[in-house]
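ugh finaly. both done.
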Amino acid sequence: MSTPHSKVGHNDLQLDSYTWASSPMRRYMDIIVQRLLHSVLEKNTPSVKYTSKEIDLFCARFQEKCEKKAKFDTHVQILKTVNHLSRQSTQMMAIVNHLDPVGHNFQVSIPLNQVSMSQTLSIMYRHLKLIDQPKYDEKSQSMTLKWKCRVYSFTNTQIQSECLGAQMNMHVTPVQTDTWQHIVSALREEDWETVVQCVQSIKSSMDGKRELREESFNVQHHTEISLDLKVGRSLPVQLGTDTMCGQTFPAVQLVNINPQFEICVQHSKDPIKCFSEPPLQGSKKAYRSYNEYKDIWGKLCAVETAYNAVAENDSIIFEDVKITWHRQSAKQTLQGNFRLSLKQKQQWSIECDLKNCFLCVRLRDQTIDMQEDLHLSEIFPPWDLEEPQSFTWVAHGVTTKTSNATESKRLSYVQTDFILHHFSMENIPKSIFSENVKFTVELIPKKLPYVLNEHAIANLTHANCLVKSIVMGNKALGTISENSREKFESEDGHLPGFSPLNDSQKDAIKRALERPFTLIQGPPGTGKTVVGIHIVYWFFMKNQEAEATIPNTQDTKQPFKKNAILYCGPSNKSVDIVAEQVLKLKGVRPLRVYSDQIEMLEFPYPGSHLKVCRKSLREEKPNEALRKITLRYLIRKQDNPYADKITSFEKIIQTEKEVDDVRIAGYKKLLNEARQHELRKHDVILCTCSSASDPNFLKTMNFRQILIDECAMATEPEALIPLVAHSPEQIVLLGDHKQIRPIVECELMKKLGMKTSLFERYMEDAVMLDTQYRMHEGICKFPSWKFYKDSLKTEGEHELSALCSPSNKQTPILFGHVEGREVGLLVSTEKGNENSTANVEEAEEVVRVAKEVKDVTVCTIMKSQGSEWRYVILSTVRSCPISDINKELPRPTKAWLSKRLGFVIDPNLVNVGITRAQDGLCIIGNKNLLRCNELWRELLEHYEKLNCVVDPAKGIQVLNTKHKQKAKQKK
């Protein structure tokens, strides 16, 4: 029992010596133990009799209640921890305790604080903003993580080398073997003085070694940092709180890669919460006023901007920043500013718009005052031999304005004002307002397309009545005139170089010519683009007549504005397809205008490569066939009066290592003057929706008519960019809401209506083209029935397919069954998005079939809309073992289908995928998995009725004759 020599006391009872035997006041089981003890020790006491069955029952109930109490105690401790972490973030040493070679996350635990942090914490790789896929090394059983970041310091010229140098982990102290043996021996002998002396000697020897190793390093814009993770490795983290389903819990807020570089997991994980206000209302079919529309869509666009800015992973980190704080503007907000000298701006190539950025402001090495927060000391008790509890203060906000160019030149610096509205903890340390405090500021530029979306909504006040009526949902827009329609009818609408129009195409053109707002739905192969080209021609004729009848009263003091037609699309490919067809129109002068991002890839200037976003790098290359009508080439031709100066500037840029901002500004001004000169010479301008608000357009062009092709692929704010920027008299939207819809990555935005295009909102008023010329009737039959109520007619002749069914009968459709294995990406990078998958077994079958045809084009379904080929081989990629499928049958959940099949079950994408082929469609996939989805089950049943399912796919036969395959555009 208890003895003074044990040196083990009881804190609550304030006893120096204590040995626990039982607790009869706390547990009924211990009363039974006491009875049994007394029965044995005291012979005079009557014996206590319990049957084995009773003892077993007592034990079972006791164990159940103990577990219940333990869970309750743990939950209470977590709630106490959460309560304090919400007020005060805390840095801790985490240990990696689980690392899955193919997982999307790893797990850490807090070993030195098991009382308050008993649960493990998960860290997703995608929240660490990696530049490349995590790579697992089987030999060392470690995962290598890589970052590529831009880090600059206002005071430390060696910041890049410090980030690269081998940093000592401040939470781990290496101990020599003999010293460790002395400590262990002293512990065994309970020689506490020797233990303390050994530990103190270790600490004193390390104080002089905690210096950063500097290496010779040529300062560059991008610094590459790597980290090898393995089970047992320490990883300093900062804990805060997170909320899910109304429950708050501890979460990793910061991950410290080294003392000079940390990752803010908080804003990577939840950019909406950190940088915007969650919208309370989604989109609607109609609105009471355009102000209501602005209010709802303004918040939706702000959320999408924040989400995509963080997803782009293109931040710039400023170290040692001096911040001047203003008075607190409102509760829970802070205002301030920082200054960036013009020299620093040039040296660091800060090309982003500083007034359109999000900020993550951090202040490292803040010490927790345990005297002020006594409750915190109970949760995280300080140890004698540890460093004082510290933390990094983190706040998030947005820049509001910057000093203009004239003022910045006079002051020799750019001042950026900002407001912080999201804080990692309730307590704001007083130290942030101290004079000589230096902050870390992570600058996250907003992406231009999303900024333009916001501007389009904000500028709706200045739009004309037609555009305001459209956004409000007003369908009673009337007609303009019938002159153009009558002329079209008198000439039967036929244009040289184009096939005769069918009745549905003629009806669509007539409606577009006489109405201010028209929608034309073009299912696959129905000639939607051709209809758009005809409309362009008749609008051109209308503008020519108007210019001939109206006297020239142009004010010579005002710059001349050219009457023209603007033809837009959501992507460069959609616009290029139209541009090739416009070239066939005689007398019409088209001009293809690409974005600055595309132009900078071919004609870079110092620092321009840092402005190119990841999305631009993944875009298809511009169509070389359009070179003769492309603006960036025309301004460099001798026909343009500015061409020689532009060429001279570019030679200087190529030969000189450093070009100052003044000369670059002069170069940009020269480019704009050349562009404006070229724009005035053309009748039809072709560009993406995002490029339609180009200031050069506003200065030189009067777009009386605007057409948006593939409008069903554009978000509503994106479609509004050209409509709000200009004052069109007539608007024509062409598209098909049954094909690819707008690409929206944020799940919240999908739920709130961002995925519903302006075209889809008005789809009930669309005129539909009903005759398709692309597909063999056998290919068209299923999509016509499934997506278009069996209303598509098929015209045109098709060659006999080279694909053969199992019965050796030539067939236009085939499905080949393959049970392959998936390989996926863990994070989004330039190479692909997170969860993108590959299937080697399916790829092998695809290659085998593709060898029998000529001129094979490889692309994704997303990039295939608008194109057609004689033969299409479609790989569905997704697969899983039959055992996993059987577990979910007969009714797989939506969550399981989403995980296992992803966008393969998106009806719009399926429609696009199976409608690209002219003569032969061969689908390769796992029929067992695909059958779990209703759409694919119906398609497989249709193919099976025609005896067109081949199991296994190796049985697919293709005639030896090499069929010439040629990619075309729609009729």
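ok and the 2nd:
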Amino acid sequence: MSRFTGFKKFLRKGRIQKGQWYIIAAVLFSYSLLTFFSIFNSYSQIDYTSIVRRDEDLLYYNIFTGLEHITQTTYSENRQGDLSDYAQMVRGNLLGKGVLFNYELKSIGGLINIKNFEMYGKDIRLGEISQSNSGSDECTVLGSYCEGDTKWTCGDFGSGYFELISDTCSGDCSCQCGGYGVTEAGHCDDGIDNDCDGRTDYADSSECSYTELCNVPGDEDNDGKSDCYDEECAGKNDSSGWVCCPGGVSQCVQDDCIVENCNSSKQCEYVNRLKCAYDECTGQGRCESAGGNCADPDLSPTVCTDCYSGTWDPIQMKCCGDDPTDNWCNTGNGSCVNGVWTSFHCNDLVQNCDETGLNCGGSYCGHCGLPGYAYKMPVYISNLGTSGLTNYQVRLEVPRASAMQADFDDVRFTLSDGFTLVDYWRESASMGSSGTLYLAYDDGVRCYLNDQMVVNVLSEAHGPGWWNKQVDVSSALQSGENTLACWVANGGENTGTVQGGLDLKLVVDGRTVIAQSDDDSSASTKDSSCSSNPSFKYYTCSHPCEPTNWYKKAYDDSAWNTGYGPFAPTSTWGCANALTSAPDDVFIRKKFTLGAVFWVEVPSIPSSGSSTSTKCCSASEGGTCTATCPAGTTVSQVKYIKYGASACSNLGACDSSAGASCAGQPNCIGQSSCTWTFNNANCGDTCYGYVKTGYLTVVCSSPATTNTTIYMYYGNATVSTTSNFAGTFDSLPDWKTIWTRTQNSACSGPSGWTNVGYDDSPWTAITDVSADFWNQCEDCDMYIRTKIMLPSVSASTISVLSDDGQWVYAGDGTYIRNCGCGSCHCPGTCSSSATITSGLRVGENAIAIWCTEHQVAETCSVTAWNVPNARVRKYASPEPTYAYGPAEYLG
């Protein structure tokens, strides 16, 4: 016989809380449908059982119940319904007469499904427990009350009872009304196997599944991977807003002009590529903006004008001038037309069609350049600083070309348009038509000029005299770079047993090209200021010795030492000390350029703000190598060409050495690669007998690098110079405001601080050098300096006031005088005028003053200034660089 089975659940240790009823839901199971019908007709009474089992501290009571007033006819009519009509009919008679049960009735075959049916029985009282029929009407099927907070869980159907647990059943009507058979879905966190399939909560993966909450810290799906480390979070934001990339950088892909990276925390990081960058673009595409998109110049006005320096035509929607192979050209009237070449456009101030310049060149217009000039050469100027330069004076060393006038009078400079002249000043000119080498030596010397021996007195033995020899070297001089090389033999009648010495100077066309190191022939007052002397490369070895090809122009002396002359026998006045330890001989080399020094005022030099890279290639003797720039970059500078073999000249591999050791230079500026052939014809027969290797190094710049181009013209025999010092340089402001200062207690200024080339940009500006600007410090010396430009040298003086010792230098580190006291931190006072004329020179000069302090409260100020015709130039750190392009013959 089928039974209704329910449990009364009590608290721990069998105790029931006073005043509470725990209304227990019952479930009717029928072992057979016929047996079930007999129950409905029998009007069975309620039986009670004793405690059937005790599980730890929970007591369970089994109650057998029967149904009353349910006929077989009623069931038969409603067996596939919900019996709600009959339930409502008997409800009033049953309420208050017994315990109200909420239950679910199911047949074994699943044909009958009656939920929340109201049953009754006798009052069940244990101790002080009273009846309670309270509850909310949440069971919508029969409208009955939900009693208590119980819920069915899975038990043994065959044993005739189920187990109950406490549960709030919030929001779950089936749960609240004791319904059996609710799904696990929606209850995946209650710790209960709701659908009785043996799988609880998320273990029932068919109805419950974990989801990783990427923007909440933690491993919500319990797979051992949290947030950005979990593949579920790919492309989603974590709690800090980062995009997750557990699968790598491929999940971080953004626009073409963004550098994507997946960091160690599996988060996407992004860096914008620069405007006009190539990198991920294809074809002619460039980044339209920093971090933007790639765009073709024929589709983007910005890429056209900013990345290709082209002209955008808004009518045809084309970029004119971006591609020499597309045949599109701006006709000057706002449209790009293929092949329209007429002379009408030679005066429209637009570079059209096949014109090689603005309104010049090509099939119809006259040649580009100044009238009457045979040659035009581009000069590419690069500003490597972070700020643009305005009206900046650029120093150019111009080698003499055969078509130039001997005195460079025909040289002119224009803007990039090819015809707008700019101001320039010619500082000096050495034509190379005549030259004299002056030698003072002790115990022999042999000298070469441009591989040609000009003097050989290596076996002579006598003391040095100024001058032992005056040698005419005119025939050995060359335009451009020259190399002087001398071998100084040690004394002891040239056996290498005592010390030898050498001093020299070279005068070309009346101008001193290599200055004399010792300007006082009195042996007791030799020069001790090495920094003011010319520098040489030198090498020593045990006598007798001679490095192979040491005197050749192409010889690589980069591994030699650098020292100042004179190379004398007395260490007290010999700067290089190359001959102070017998029996060594010394070999010296000095490079110089014959040509002119020009200063050109360029109206605007924008900052390139671009990245550069260096590329190098090498080839053995007779071979050709090509240095290729990365995609999207072109050659901006040929850095060096070296040729030789490491066994004889210490020739290294690709490095940062500057200068060229081979004649000529590849014309590859602006091209994507540079090619050079290494052989004895163009590089000299260096390292005779050795297998030689050559190295070509170029600097590559991205399209964002915008060289400022000016043009140099020459080859006009009928014109005179238009050199203009005043128009090129800026007027001298109040001389009291052009000084800078630094201080220390080392009794010597920074290395080279008296020289023109010293970078004093980090020094502190002095508002008024005539006032007492001293910063108080104990035994602290003050160093001050300024730089000026002079078109010529005339009598010049300054007055320096100090209450202790002072030292004055002028020109390029030339010592002028000391007064007040003669040692560091000594006491004394000086306020007299210093004549600085002897140190000044045409061109750029530095005036430097050292004031020493004795004790405290010192004074150092310049109180008077008389330097006629002085002007100033602008300075930048670093200075702009320049390179010459190939000369164009204009006819």
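summary for the 2nd one i guess: Residues 444-514+532-592 form one domain.
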